[in-house]
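Per your request, structure below.
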């Protein structure tokens, strides 16, 4: 059973990645930064958020986050936001509206980076 337990050592990196993601969204950086690096950072963002509040293993967290990201991307392939007639800008941003196989690559790279950080820091 998962327990909810606040862990500051994961919440601070979550906040830092969140600030980066917001900056990428607001300042409209180069297409590579906004379109690819922003997708890479989504995985650490969600990973640190889950680890900050849930007692869940490193590997399980990566699998959950990566699975979630892949599912959202696959739903974009099937135009879920159009099917559900979503008019909320926030929901459209979260769900996205354009499938791109490069996003799957970006998510995988984000998961790999998180795994490397875990191995190097051996938490």
């Amino acid at each position: 059973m998962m327990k909810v337990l606040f862990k500051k050592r994961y919440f601070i990196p979550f906040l830092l990645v969140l600030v980066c993601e917001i900056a990428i969204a607001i300042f409209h950086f180069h297409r590579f930064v906004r379109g690819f690096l922003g997708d890479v950072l989504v995985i650490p963002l969600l990973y640190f958020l889950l680890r900050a509040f849930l007692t869940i293993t490193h590997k399980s967290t990566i699998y959950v986050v990566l699975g979630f990201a892949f599912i959202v991307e696959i739903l974009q392939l099937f135009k879920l936001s159009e099917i559900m007639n979503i008019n909320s800008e926030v929901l459209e941003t979260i769900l996205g509206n354009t499938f791109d196989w490069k996003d799957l690559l970006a998510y995988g790279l984000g998961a790999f980076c998180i795994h490397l950080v875990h191995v190097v820091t051996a938490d």
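Residues 8-121 form one domain.

Regards,
D.
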